[in-house]
Amino acid sequence: MPQKHRPGCQLPALQLRPGREKSVLQRHPWIFSGAIAAWPDRLDDGGLAAVVAADGRHVGYAYVNRRCSIAARLVAFGDTDPHTAIRNSLQRAVALRQTLFDARRTTALRLVNGEGDGLPGLIVDRYADVLVCQISTLGMERLKSFLLEVLVELVQPRAVYEKSDVAARYEEGLTDAAGLLYGQDFGPLVILENGLRFHVDVKRGQKTGFFLDQRDMRALMETLVGGRRVLNGFAYTGGFSVYARRGGAARVVSVDSSGGALRLAQGNHALNGFPSVPEDFVEADMFAYLREIASGLFDVIILDPPSFARKKDDVVRAGRAYKDLNRLALTKVAPGGLVLTCSCSHFVDDKLFGQIVFQAAYEAGRNVRILHRHRQALDHPISVFHPEGGYLKSLLLSVD
179 and 163 in contact (C-beta within 8 Å)? Predict the structure, then answer.
């Protein structure tokens, strides 16, 4: 049983309401504002506090922010000092990735996946010898110097770059932040993923530069596209497209609204020795493109759009967009074809996404079967104590 909080502890004590310690004892890292009985006077937003049950038992350590509905996020459970716990979490995160990947074939991976690695508010991606950090909370922002020190010690990168541009920062009272935190400045990088080479523009690209979370789904699709005509929608820099080329697809068309992303996609084809036919790289809105093409032109359609719901209020509008997009794809794919449909919208959960795809299939008038549900990339772990960490959903559909 956790010990009683010691009044002489260095950190101020954040006291919970009666019965509200249960989730913390079950290792869930979030404490909502309604669970807090009393805020200590000498605790600034972003600071660390000891978390104490109503009966005085010490249950862990968290950083806090009064302005947020998630008012505290735990970085340590039990008695371990919070800085020691953070260092231990970083060590475990790095060690886990060393067991998952062959560095001769894959040099880009997620080193830290927020709550999945016991470090809420922190994402760290590795691109060859460069680390890219994304900090989304005030508490982690206050710990940035310490985090940087430990990461450099553990990984010894050439550079560490911050790219913190997520909407959650505004809720925390933060603005966007980008820039070099450590080491030598750098330009576009070249990484390996499952033996394929990709240009990554960390500074100007989406997210931290590359969609690492779709690695395993790219590998799966490679095995299914031999001899087929593939349409890669929202192609970005062509990850799925390059895998499809290696998988022997008869044709691969990449569609994206960003001309810059498509130029990188063309470069990624050339980097791997695949032909780069200009008409196969289409700068267009994917909704409009699907409306305009003939039915049966493609045997495989891949839909990996950006998030349509960046906040809870967006869910209804996002649902309509996902339904329209999937209905169009299901209408246009050739009989016997495949549609891989994805959503990275946190507020559109698996159940709702399934309902949306059902409605799209019904309106398209096609017989649709689910062959596969999303294969989580191994470097994006989700804590069993924090299922909210799952955000990416994919369904591989067979369409008659």
Answer: no
Q: How far is CA 178 from the centre of its chain?
A: 18
Burial of 179 (0-12, 13-18, 19+ CB in 10 A): exposed
Beta bridge partners of 95: none
**Cα-Cα end-to-end distance for the chain:** 58
Say yes or no: 185 and 254 in one domain. Answer: no
Catalytic residue among 68, 133, 342, 344: 344
Residue ranges of the alpha helices (H) in the chain?
22-25, 82-100, 138-142, 144-155, 168-171, 215-222, 239-246, 259-271, 286-292, 315-332, 350-364
CB burial of 14-47 (b: ≥16 within 10 Å; e: otherwise) equals bbbeeebbebbeeebbbbeeebbeebeeebebbb
Sheet containing 393-399: give its strands across.
281-283, 251-256, 229-233, 300-303, 337-343, 393-399, 368-373
CATH number at residue 146: 3.30.750.80
Q: Where are the alpha helices (H) located in 159-207, listed in sequence order?
A: 168-171
Is pTM beyond 0.90? Reply is: yes
Are residues 152 and 230 located together in one domain of the fold? no
Count: domains in the chain:
3
Q: Among residues 194, 203, 227, 226, which one has the least CA distance to residue 108?
A: 194
Same domain, 119 and 216: no
Instruction: Say yes or no: 269 and 337 in one domain.
Output: yes
Please tell me the distance from the alpha carbon of residue 144 to that of residue 319, in angstroms, as a whole number. Answer: 37
pLDDT in tens, 350-387: 899 999 999 999 999 999 999 999 878 999 999 999 99
Query: In 3-state terms, what secondary structure has residue 70?
Result: strand
User: How many CB atoms sit inside 10 A of residue 381's CB?
Assistant: 19
Residue 133 annotated to the active site: no
Mean pLDDT for 343-356 is 89
**Integer Cα distance of 147 and 128 in angstroms:** 20
The domain of 308 spans 211-399
Which residue type sits at 221? M
Give the domain CATH number at 365. Answer: 3.40.50.150
Nearest to 163 by CA among 204, 109, 113, 191: 204
